[in-house]
Amino acid sequence: NAGVTQTPKFQVLKTGQSMTLQCAQDMNHEYMSWYRQDPGMGLRLIHYSVGAGITDQGEVPNGYNVSRSTTEDFPLRLLSAAPSQTSVYFCASSYPPGQGKLYGYTFGSGTRLTVV
Amino acid sequence: AQTVTQSQPEMSVQEAETVTLSCTYDTSESDYYLFWYKQPPSRQMILVIRQEAYKQQNATENRFSVNFQKAAKSFSLKISDSQLGDAAMYFCAYKERFGNEKLTFGTGTRLTIIP
Question: Which of A6, A87, A91, A105 to mutate to test the interface with B (most CBs of B within 10 A)?
Answer without folding.
Answer: A105
